[in-house]
Design brief:
Strand order of the largest sheet: 34-35-36-37-46-43-42-39-40
Structural class: alpha+beta
Shape: elongated
Distance between the termini: 70 Å
Oligomer: single chain
Helix content: 10-25%
């Protein structure tokens, strides 16, 4: 096997991308001891050479002094030496007596000399000889280096997920043992174990014996175990509103068990984070977010530059620090000790232990890193780093001894084994008043990996919306029936494991990779299937399979109409549908056997009863279908027979053309990219559909559709169905690819070039709304974005709202996502997002050589909707996105299930994002979300009766202050209530 082939096989995504299995990585600096810089005189025999060291050591008086090495190559010293140092008007005289003649001498400068660049006069009197010289001392801070011991949680990257879990669980017991044994070490050298993720702690507590649990609680209270409050290392931008809150759900049970609040979180490996994290963290009592990213070029913009990250609501903020890349422990030691031992579950090895703890430690790394910060004029003298031997590894038991020995040798840099709480406290105590604030999304870099399994990503996106609907249905229909809160929580757990940043095995070509990928796929599959099951179970009290009625339930907080889809079984009675007043509504039997009808005025958090009757629909709609044209009273869509693209989209009322004239992209155009940008060369080609055939698929009073069936690069076939519904102002698209699996680097993109001159792009993100560039922190990813439910493009007069149900990735302005693997190669990364009204949906790629599946194939469908509108209205955009992602729920029944809603809101800018039973089943939890950029007042109403108690609460659901039912919700803010009836 060639070295290049071996390198590609072992190229890792986690633990310093491209350095887990290899000694070196492209772009990752190679550590070599820097040569000592010796300042040497030209000719004077009565002077000396010198080298100023970056560290401080303890002087005889106990104070720290910079060390200077003096060299006497021509005349070694012997006997008594009188040393005089003069610095800033102060003089210090000491007598030295080396035991043997020496040609070098280590001198410690006066305390504080060298904190800033200075000159020190050094004179040595040795018998009749006097040596004198001015020594230039460069600045070196008295650094405190906080070392965060952990084992990077990569659920599946190095072994099967269950093996990884067992290793991390065992580490907690080992960590407690090491902490107990070092509890009397000097301060800073006492061991602390950081499990990194609450997924680890939750797993431990599930498996622990009573004695282990007791020992664990004691360790947490003593600070031996320190818990950070994120479920795991997640693609947070791919989370939904409610899912982002669930990231911290474990915190409350763990804190209740230990009596120690959890106020910090870490994100390892995965660079960036969703802006919505700030609100979600604050709602859960988390005050600090530390990022220890994988090595990547753009991270240098934020290295060791803390800031207060302010939420879009303008109130909540958390301390944010992007600290050292987490992979240094592996690079400096773990790679030398060997993966066979560092990742072993063998009873022979439960920790890493060597005879020389200081060997393969942080020298010279820490001197080089702090020197870079000195050169960059960093105002801080704190350095935070982690220590992990590898991904999913054993604990380095050498660390406490190494730190103890180091601190005996050096006064500074001073090392401290620590958790995030201590590091956060140190920054705030010393620099809290000068740390700046920033607002904006730290758009993530690794979300392109979501395209490696497009089918499962779609399952996850549907599953998380289904779960919110399931919880709402249990609240609406289960007044006297406890909700299965534990089971629902397990479904959310599946979704979090699906969003966790690890997708597969480190070598996707290895036999084990398929098992790891299958386990990961199961998280998505089980989340979607269980979400459907909880909806079915919620409907059981009202469901009657043989009943003639069909109840349409609206789980959203505003009345709405729209298209209802019944399965062939639900619509078996016939093709006619009447409402609860016996009035016929527009319906149609589809070629799939499904029955659709148009529902009107379904109450907010309510339902309306319909009946399916024998016979055919007698009503006419406003739809028309031709060979290449579709039309209703709102829109006219024209397809290009040669390409299958939508060449025209006319808004009939205004006469506006929404496809940019003469655009090569048009709407719903297929773009296949083979290859990626590698290095500075473009090595990719583009491909488009051929042999396009158009046909009318549906032609009825309610729905008309055209199919463009074609050959397409990378696929066995491509089918694009364009749909218009009678009385509905939006366009729907269903794109189905029969994908050919290949390991050649590829990507599928669907283009949408909208004719909205000077249109501003706004993206729905968790707990916020983001305009690319404008609402991003500097150096955030601009090559692609991850939206939640909709993207809006509007100018001051008009615009449109666009959504994709299954795929969250979009590119703005061009095909900029064709970059190989992680986040390196800075020349390929956009520094800004030019104004553009062109979107590309990016559902599929295989750009990674590690961690993600190398190929995917088979049938996959992606659904899109486009809603033209007038002047931008955040309510219209948000409601459209939610309606497409949370369709009506239908159930066969003989009565209207929800006569009156338990709650209502009187401000359209405020939406109910969550309505569910509380974890203790004693109350309802109501979560409000604002889609407005201004503070909004909202009053709650009680159609079904006034609750006996209305209290605000946090995400932990504990009742807070009483509320009068009228509150002010901050811009893009959330407010949560606990309602007891």
């Amino acid at each position: 096997m060639s070295p290049a082939r071996l390198f590609s096989l072992l190229w890792p995504a986690c633990l310093g991308y491209a350095l887990l299995q290899t000694g070196y990585a492209p772009g990752f600096p190679v550590l070599r001891p820097e040569p000592t810089k010796i300042f040497s005189p030209k000719s004077d025999p009565f002077t000396f050479d010198y080298a100023v060291k970056p560290w401080y050591k303890y002087r005889p008086d106990g104070k720290p002094g910079r060390e200077v090495l003096l060299y006497f190559p021509k005349t070694p010293l012997s006997g008594k030496i009188l040393l005089t140092t003069e610095w800033e008007g102060k003089k210090e005289v000491r007598e030295l007596a080396p035991a043997t003649p020496c040609d070098s001498l280590a001198v410690l400068l006066p305390a504080n000399a060298g904190l800033s660049a200075t000159t020190v006069n050094i004179t040595l009197q040795n018998g009749e000889r006097q040596y004198q010289r001015q020594v230039a001392v460069p600045a070196s801070k008295q650094w405190t280096v906080y070392i965060y011991p952990h084992s990077h949680v990569d659920i599946g990257y190095t072994n099967l997920q269950e093996v990884v879990e067992d290793l991390h669980v065992r580490n907690i017991d080992v960590g407690i043992d090491i902490a107990r044994k070092t509890q009397h070490y000097p301060e800073g050298a006492r061991f602390i174990w950081n499990p990194e993720a609450t997924w680890v702690v939750r797993s431990y507590l599930k498996k622990a014996s009573p004695q282990q649990k007791k020992s664990f609680v004691e360790a947490v209270r003593k600070g031996w175990i320190q818990i950070d409050g994120a479920h795991s290392n997640l693609n947070t931008s791919a989370c939904s509103d409610e899912e982002l809150l669930r990231v911290f759900e474990n915190n409350h049970a763990i804190a209740a068990a230990t009596g120690v609040p959890i106020t910090t979180m870490v994100q390892m490996d995965n660079p960036g984070g969703s802006w919505g994290l700030v609100q979600a963290a604050a709602q859960n009592g988390v005050k600090a977010f530390f990022s220890f990213p994988n090595y990547y070029d753009l991270r240098h913009s934020w290295d060791h530059k803390p800031f207060y990250w302010v939420a879009q609501n303008g109130k909540d903020r958390i301390f944010f620090l992007q600290a050292a890349s987490y992979g240094w422990g592996y690079r400096l030691k773990g790679s030398i000790y060997g993966l066979a031992k560092t990742q072993s579950l063998s009873p022979k090895y439960d920790r890493v232990s060597t005879a020389d703890p200081l060997k393969n430690f942080i020298d010279p790394f820490i001197f080089q890193e702090t020197a870079k910060l000195e050169k960059a004029n960093s105002p801080y003298d704190i350095y935070a780093m982690t220590w992990s031997m590898a991904d999913n590894c054993l604990i380095d038991a050498d660390l406490p001894e190494a730190v103890r020995l180091w601190n005996e040798r050096y006064a500074f840099p001073k090392l401290k084994i620590a958790g995030i709480k201590e590091i956060h406290a140190a920054y705030e105590a010393k620099y809290g008043s000068v740390i700046p604030e920033y607002k904006g999304d730290f758009t993530e870099f690794w979300t392109n990996g979501l395209g490696s399994d497009a089918r499962r990503v779609g399952m996850g996106r549907r599953g998380k919306e289904n779960l919110v609907q399931a919880e709402a249905l249990w609240a609406l229909l289960g007044k006297n029936r406890p909700a299965p809160v534990d089971s629902l929580s397990r479904s959310w757990e599946q979704l979090l494991l699906a969003s966790e940043h690890t997708w597969g095995y480190q070598d996707p070509r290895a036999p084990l990779a398929k098992k790891v990928e299958a386990n990961k796929a199961a998280f998505f599959e089980q989340a979607e299937s269980s979400s459907k099951e909880w909806i079915r179970r919620a409907l059981e009290p009202v469901a009657k399979k043989e009943a003639p009625g069909i109840a349409v339930v609206n789980t959203l907080s505003w009345p709405r109409g729209g298209i209802v889809t019944l399965s062939p079984e639900q619509g078996r009675a016939g093709d006619r549908v009447v409402d609860d007043q016996g009035k016929e509504v527009l319906s149609q039997r589809l070629s799939s056997g499904e029955l659709i009808f148009r529902a009107e005025n379904i109450p907010a958090l309510g339902s309306r009863l319909y009946k399916v009757l024998p016979g055919r629909c007698s009503l006419s709609g406003d739809t028309e279908a031709g060979a290449a044209l579709l039309q209703n009273s709102f829109l006219t869509a024209t397809l290009d027979p040669a390409t299958g693209n939508i060449s025209r989209l006319l808004e009939r009322k205004t006469g506006r053309e929404l496809v940019r004239p003469s655009s090569p992209v048009a709407l719903n155009s297929y773009h296949y990219l083979l290859g990626v940008k590698n290095g500075k060369d473009s090595t990719f080609t583009t491909g488009h559909p051929t042999q396009v055939a158009l046909r009318v698929k549906e032609k009825g009073p309610l729905l008309v559709s055209l199919e463009a069936v074609s050959e397409a690069p990378g696929c066995r076939s491509l089918t694009r169905e364009v749909r218009l519904f009678s009385g509905q102002p939006y366009l729907e698209l269903v794109n189905t690819v029969d994908k050919i699996a290949t390991r050649k680097k590829e990507g599928i993109h669907f283009g949408f070039d909208f004719n909205v001159p000077q249109g501003v792009v706004r993206m729905d993100i968790p707990w916020g709304n983001m305009v690319p560039d404008q609402d991003q922190v500097p150096s955030a990813n601009k090559n692609w974005f991850t939206f939640q439910r909709h993207v809006d493009i509007s100018n001051p007069e008009y615009g449109l709202t666009w959504t994709c149900i299954e795929s969250p990735l979009v590119e703005v302005g061009g095909l900029s996502g064709n970059i190989l693997d992680g986040a390196r190669q800075p020349w390929n990364w956009l520094k800004s997002t030019p104004p553009s009204q062109t979107l590309y949906s990016w559902p599929l790629n295989n750009h990674w050589d590690t961690n993600f599946p190398l190929e995917q194939g088979g049938l996959m469908s992606f659904r899109y909707q486009v809603l033209p509108h007038g002047k931008y209205d955040p309510v219209v955009a948000a409601r459209f996105g939610l309606e497409q992602n949370r369709p009506f729920v239908v159930v066969a029944t003989d009565k209207n299930p929800v006569d009156r809603a338990p709650v209502s809101v009187d401000n359209p800018n405020i939406m109910i994002s969550t309505l569910k039973k509380s974890a203790d089943n004693k109350a309802l939890i109501l979560r409000l979300k604002s889609v407005s950029g201004q503070p909004e007042r909202v009053t709650l109403g009680w159609p079904a009766g006034t609750p006996r108690s209305v209290r605000t609460c946090g995400a932990d659901e504990r009742p807070g202050p009483k509320s009068p039912g009228t509150v002010m919700v901050l811009p893009y803010g959330m407010t949560t209530f606990r309602l007891e009836f």
